[in-house]
Amino acid sequence: MTVSVATWNINSVRLRLPLVQSFLESWQPDVLCLQETKCPNDQFPLKAFHRMGYEHVEMHGQKGYHGVATISRFPLEAVEARDFCGIGDTRHLDCVVRTPRRALRIHNFYVPAGGDEPDPEINPKFRHKLDFLEEMRTITADPGGADSVLLVGDLNIAPLETDVWSHKQLLKVVSHTPVETETLEDVRRAGGWSDLIRVAIPPEEKIYTWWSYRARDWDVSDRGRRLDHVWGSPDLEPMLSDITVLREARGWEKPSDHVPVIARFRLDG
Amino acid sequence: MTVSVATWNINSVRLRLPLVQSFLESWQPDVLCLQETKCPNDQFPLKAFHRMGYEHVEMHGQKGYHGVATISRFPLEAVEARDFCGIGDTRHLDCVVRTPRRALRIHNFYVPAGGDEPDPEINPKFRHKLDFLEEMRTITADPGGADSVLLVGDLNIAPLETDVWSHKQLLKVVSHTPVETETLEDVRRAGGWSDLIRVAIPPEEKIYTWWSYRARDWDVSDRGRRLDHVWGSPDLEPMLSDITVLREARGWEKPSDHVPVIARFRLDG
DNA sequence: GAGGGCGTAG
DNA sequence: CTACGCCCTC
């Protein structure tokens, strides 16, 4: 059977609920992982998801900032919402999805953006981002009690040269500086993770999941970055049937600056 | 010939430009007086009005608050934007409209709302409103160099018992307290003004131009007030053909809390 | 450029 | 309830 998992930094789930609904209707993913929900748990639009057939929702949100949620057609158990860097924000949620044939563990992440200045000595937000990455080393591709494990979300780093519109121009721009790209790749490899977007789409090919709101014409200038990721335990690699980066979503009415990424797996149990 | 003049507290002209456009398209008034444009002069959507055949626009606005504009198919001259109470806000604009047969002077007013507490001793906003009314005495129905004169706008007072949904319940509510209603009626009569809405619609009949945003269902509960006015020099009375209070506009998508009032005159020269 | 928070205004 | 300003974040 095919199981599909989507990840999307939605930049306010309440403001963009109609967009989420139309996305779910068109793409019917089995699981949707949202980031930047900007929504306290008691104000999360649960019913809207239930009405659309997503009966299982785990969320970890706060007022105004950050926030992640994992939404599923299949039974879901929250394992943990870890407080990275111990500052009480809401950037991680670890759940297990019980698909009919396999238990799939999913880490849903929203990594700090890191501010403007890529120097941890003078920019505490960048320091926070690097500290967060170091702490992410503890999240490995070990499924624990599940069969397989995914790590998805907005990692706010575009690791490869082809993950940005201009490698040269972005080398000193937060999200593509060597300390970030190298650390992220090291965290990934050391944790035993496979970069599934790059398994499906060859590293030679440019691919982006985010375009700044500030650009006049995001589509023409196309100055994007691949900030959103789908990592998997190596056993999932042969089961991956395809990845869709839904570029068109950036052109929707009142869009998020990120687009959904959908991964489809043939899970044969 | 018939000349029509509309007045509308638009509560942000930029936010509600589509509503203004659809109103102009349907009703084709010759002159439109707006209040609460909330728009600095250099950001006023001039071109949109030009495109709709309103080539003559005078505005007096500021950032964020207040602001009035007079928009016309016929040539327009600004006479004065008076600084009532000397605090530099933008609540008045005096223009002359050159209709083919008559010069029509129009005072466009946005009177201070006055805050919650109807006591000038403890509420400086109410003090300001009363001071403003006193200063309005200097604006009389004298056409000056023009043939006739109008005073239109949001006067933030409902003078008659039939200008509110409940006279009794509003006697202590700012907009319908005796000091306000009596002062306004005195300013009007002493200035030689005719209350043209009440010339067209008998004082026995309830008529409102404003419904609070706070009410759940403005149409059913119908707790409105007549805060917007069209006053004229007495010579205009026999020329008044009708007044329309466009109640339906309160039900439009993302409406202003005020509706347009349109006065039609047979100006025979 | 576009969210959110808050406070102020209507 | 709605729209602003200001300040913050991304």
Automatic annotation (TrEMBL), chains A, B:
Family matches, as InterPro entries: AP_endonuc_1, AP_endonuclease_F1_BS, Endo/exonu/phosph_ase_sf, Endo/exonuclease/phosphatase, ExoIII-like
Residues the UniProt record annotates as site (Transition state stabilizer): N156
GO biological process terms on file: DNA repair
Entry keyword Manganese: yes
Binding site for Mg(2+): N9, E36, D154, N156, D257, H258
Gene3D superfamilies found in the cross-reference section: Endonuclease/exonuclease/phosphatase
Molecular functions per Gene Ontology: DNA binding; double-stranded DNA 3'-5' DNA exonuclease activity; endonuclease activity; metal ion binding
Chain segments annotated as transmembrane: none
Key word Manganese present: yes
Pfam family, one: Exo_endo_phos
Protein name: Exodeoxyribonuclease III
UniProt organism field: Oricola thermophila
Phylogenetic lineage: Bacteria, Pseudomonadati, Pseudomonadota, Alphaproteobacteria, Hyphomicrobiales
